Structure formats: structure tokens, C-alpha cells
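Q: What does the predicted 3D structure of Pantothenate kinase look like?
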Amino acid sequence: MISSVSSPPRGAHRHRPEATPYVDLTRSEWSALRDKTPLPLTAAEVEKVRGLGDVIDLDEVRDIYLPLSRLLNLYVGATDGLRGALNTFLGNTGERAAQTGTPFVIGVAGSVAVGKSTVARLLQALLSRWPEHPRVERVTTDGFLLPTKELQARGLMSRKGFPESYDRRALTRFVADIKAGKDEVTAPVYSHLIYDIVPGERLVVRRPDILIVEGLNVLQPALPGKDGRTRVGLADYFDFSVYVDARAEDIERWYLNRFRKLRATAFQDPSSYFRKYTQVSEEEALDYARTTWRTINKVNLLENVAPTRGRATLVVRKGPDHKVQRLSLRKL
């Protein structure tokens, strides 16, 4: 006798898992993917790259960032192979084929105070240990913020960090030039001490194997031109991207803790733009920090930064203790 499965009653629905381009992994599942990759960093080296307030340690590096460096190394190799196939198709050989080689570009996005700078520095340190690509450069988008005078003239000082506060054309051109294999590309330099672009100072990048671009809005799609036509955006040049995620409530707490520590250290410098917050009580200073978070950083996170999360290749989700709990890797 052959049994059959009856159809569900009219109006009933079978449960189907939500379609998603990501595969979700727990911390332990992700950690197992590092295979036999050795840990090339010491505790002292991790301490050097750790951001203020970040609790990252060797276990976090071993469990989270070592597997990521292995994955990225595989991506770099696969991209090189694809480039070789393209050169074969185009008939490029010898010197002409070598000229078409381009750096592998990684974008790292996330909120203020979420720890994306630490992630970018760790990736730089780990990836430069792989013999296939020793030249790894890191650039932050802070250097492409409009100078303070320009922000003031446009009424954007209270929107600093929002997409419109950057010279997005110059930033995209900078990455495009590196991707095109130019021998030398320069970028402006930003100082957190003076809270502005440093006049006359430039960062020089010379043909890296890998470039890491870190910033709040690096995954923003390109805006249409005045003619309505779609332009090429910064993220279009990325070969891989990471979004560092956490609950807004946790990020606010980390932001305030970092502000307290900076008030006791860097803000004490007489040249610091924020020295004025060392001249008032801690509670008054923290009131300013809370207002800044609520009216600027949180608004930017919710309106501009978080909506780009779905464009990332990998989403790294942190828990309240700053440690990574889950990861989502794009599979499609």
C-alpha cells in the first residue's frame, strides 16, 4: 500500500524557513572553522591594536578573527584565480596581465564605539602574517571628512559623521585609484586631537596587496547623479565587507565608558579640542556625551549605518560584554 501526504487544509500554511542570503553561525561553530591556522599574534601585539574600552583578548582573536583571516586568505586566492581566468579570456599575457592585477579591498563598517577600528587593525595584523600578501594597508574614512570650516559653512557640524559630512567623491576616487593599481595614492589625514583635517599632511599608500577601508558609512550605496543615473559607489570596489553589530543600548554604554576614559587621558592634552570637558564636573561632561549620542551618533546609526548591514559579506554580532556571540556569512 502506498501512502500519500495530504495537502494542508485550505487556508493553512506550512512553515517555511525565512529565505536569507546568509548562513548563521554560533561562536563555537565559527571558531571551529579556523582549522589548524596558527595564532601569529602575542598578547602584547593584541594589546597594541585594541581600542580604548575594547575587551578583546587572545581567546577572542583565536575564536573569531583567526578564522576570519583564514576565510579572507581563501577569498584573496580565489579572487586572484578569477583574475587569471579573466586575463586568459581577454588575451592578456606577460606584462599586460601583471598590470591588470589589483589589490584586494575589504570594507569594515559599524557604529561609533562598536569596535570596528579594533577589528580593522586586527585584520591588518593577521593578514600581513600570511606570506601570500604581506603588504596590508589600512585607511579610515575620517580623513575624508570635510574640514571644520567647510562643515561650519554648510551648517553640518551637528551632522559630523553623517554621509553628507564626507567628501564622498574624493573617497571613492581614492579607493578606485588603488583598485586600478596606481603606484602611489594619497589621502588627507584626520586628527582626533584637533577634531579636524591636518592641513598639508597626506597619507601615502603604495600598491598594497590588501587595503582595509574602515568607517561608519563605507557600505552606503551610491547616490544617483543629477541626471538620475546610478553612479559607482565606494562599496562597489570592495571584495569583502564586515559589519560590526551590537544593540544600540550596549553601544551607548560603551560610548560613555570610552568618553570617561578619554576625559582622563587624551582630553587632558592642552591641544585637545575636547579639553573643555575636563574643566567641568564629570556629570556635566557625561551629560554632553549623552546628548551627543542621542542627537547625533544614535540618529546616524539608525538612519544611515544600520540600514547598510544587509550589504555586508559578514555580520559580526557582539554581546553586552563586547565579545562576539554570533556571525552571519553571506552565502549567495
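A (community wiki): The C-alpha cells above were generated from the sequence. The chain has one domain: 22-330. Strands lie at 22-26, 104-110, 136-140, 185-191, 196-205, 210-214, 240-245, 314-318, 324-330.
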